[in-house]
């Protein structure tokens, strides 16, 4: 392995998130516009190229690889890509190979993911109400996701549910979602909605539900104990003592966690975003394609990009207007 990747703020970069497609079978209201224009397929890195890219990062100290999208499981042959990445788990270079998914294709793919070495998946689910699910995802069917969760559990995958906290949408469901996760043995993490992508008249501030309030809502019913354990992701965890359940909080707005950032994001076209909340990016496609048999140029480009990693995002809703908004949609980098 070459020297580790350290950014200008002395943060070691050990976590790579890869968006393997910008396409999705849902159109969640906070993530995409209804009429999205997607990239032409010819612009995408091939799976072989993504393999070479990820393998290079792993050689430079990346230990956690999360595949995301758009919806990662709608990309053709993606399970073959997971199977290939599994070799880095076998050598011990990679500590975790995982994905974030909307769950719609898990009935089909859960077994192959397990066979590739995936042990834990994060599944996005904001509501357990069929009609509301249709509203928030526009195109999704709750039943299909629940079947995907069943199959993932059947094959042995550990599941974390990611729910975006949305005022006036899933507020009232906090007890039901929490209870449902507990009964099914699923971890649960709440996420604050971030200003990604221009959504026209979509009201982000109106829908912003601070996780400080979510925590208070838990405290009305449970004894909540903060935990020190981390997964290498941005969530902080607390335990509900009455049930022993672990709840995660991802709080980019109410409690910034950038100082412990360990991650960068690669898009399906080979752009490297050094921060989710800034526009800076580096093109890695040209150095990747410069020489198929030698990754020297790619490694140099990655090191140069890491020296440009910003301190953090500038998201802010505190003045009753959206600050720090990104022009790109969340699906571009995969969250
Ligand atoms: N602002 C910000 N938000 C992030 C970052 N990483 C993840 N998130 C948000 O948290 C959501 C959930 O992240 P996941 O894909 O579940 O990944 P994770 O939280 O690293 O997962 P674990 O490994 O389970 O901790 C993302 O979709 C983003 O909305 C980050 O670096 N900065
Ligand atoms: C962009 S999706 C990609 C993976 C997959 N399609 C899924 O939904 O899990 C990753 C995560 O980003 C979250 N997300 C999307 N837009 C967001 C926003 N504006 N603010 C906060 N989280 C967002 C989603 O809820 C999801 O958990
Ligand atoms: S959050 Fe995930 S499922 Fe929803 S539109 Fe975005 S990429 Fe698709
Ligand atoms: S906003 Fe940027 S610096 Fe902050 S945790 Fe996310 S990626 Fe890291």
TrEMBL record:
InterPro entries: Aldolase_TIM (IPR013785), Elp3/MiaA/NifB-like_rSAM (IPR006638), MoaA (IPR013483), MoaA-like (IPR040064), MoaA_NifB_PqqE_Fe-S-bd_CS (IPR000385), MoaA_twitch (IPR010505), MoCo_biosynth_MoaA/MoaC (IPR050105), rSAM (IPR007197). [4Fe-4S] cluster 1 binds at residues 24, 28, 31. [4Fe-4S] cluster 2 binds at residues 258, 261, 275. Binds 2 [4Fe-4S] clusters. Binds 1 [4Fe-4S] cluster coordinated with 3 cysteines and an exchangeable S-adenosyl-L-methionine and 1 [4Fe-4S] cluster coordinated with 3 cysteines and the GTP-derived substrate. Its EC number is 4.1.99.22. S-adenosyl-L-methionine binds at residues 30, 70, 124, 194. It catalyses: GTP + AH2 + S-adenosyl-L-methionine = (8S)-3',8-cyclo-7,8-dihydroguanosine 5'-triphosphate + 5'-deoxyadenosine + L-methionine + A + H(+). Gene3D superfamilies: Aldolase class I (3.20.20.70). GTP binds at residues 17, 66, 100, 160, 263-265. Belongs to the radical SAM superfamily. MoaA family. Monomer and homodimer. This is GTP 3',8-cyclase. It comes from Tritonibacter aquimaris.
């Amino acid at each position: 392995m070459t020297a580790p990747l350290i950014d200008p703020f002395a943060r070691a970069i050990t976590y790579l998130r890869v968006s393997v497609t910008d396409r999705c079978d849902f159109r969640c209201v906070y993530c995409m516009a209804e009429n999205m224009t997607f990239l032409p397929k010819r612009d995408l890195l091939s799976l072989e190229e993504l393999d070479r890219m990820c393998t290079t990062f792993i050689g430079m100290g990346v230990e956690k690889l999360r595949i995301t999208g758009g919806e990662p499981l709608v990309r053709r042959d993606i399970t073959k890509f997971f199977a290939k990445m599994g070799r880095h788990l076998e050598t011990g270079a990679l500590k975790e190979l995982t994905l974030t998914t909307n769950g719609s294709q898990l009935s089909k793919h859960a077994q192959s993911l397990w066979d590739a070495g995936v042990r834990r998946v994060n599944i996005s689910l904001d509501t357990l109400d069929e009609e509301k699910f249709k509203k928030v995802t526009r195109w999704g069917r709750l039943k299909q996701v629940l079947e995907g969760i069943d199959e993932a559990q059947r094959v042995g995958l550990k599941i974390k549910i990611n729910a975006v906290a949305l005022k006036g949408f899933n507020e009232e469901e906090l007890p039901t979602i929490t209870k449902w996760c507990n009964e099914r043995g699923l971890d649960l993490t709440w996420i604050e909605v971030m200003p990604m992508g221009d959504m026209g008249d979509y009201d982000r501030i109106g829908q912003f539900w601070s996780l400080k309030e979510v925590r208070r809502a838990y405290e009305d019913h449970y004894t909540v104990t903060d935990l020190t354990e981390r997964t290498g992701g941005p969530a902080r965890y607390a335990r509900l003592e009455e049930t022993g359940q672990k709840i995660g909080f991802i709080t980019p707005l109410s409690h910034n966690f950038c100082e412990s950032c360990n991650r960068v994001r690669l898009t399906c076209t080979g752009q490297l975003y050094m921060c989710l909340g800034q526009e800076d990016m580096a093109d890695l496609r040209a150095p990747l394609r410069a020489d198929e048999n030698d990754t020297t140029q790619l490694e140099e480009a990655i090191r140069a990009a890491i020296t440009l990693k910003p301190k953090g995002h500038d998201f802010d809703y505190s003045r009753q207007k959206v600050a720090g908004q990104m022009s790109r949609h969340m699906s571009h980098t995969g969250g």
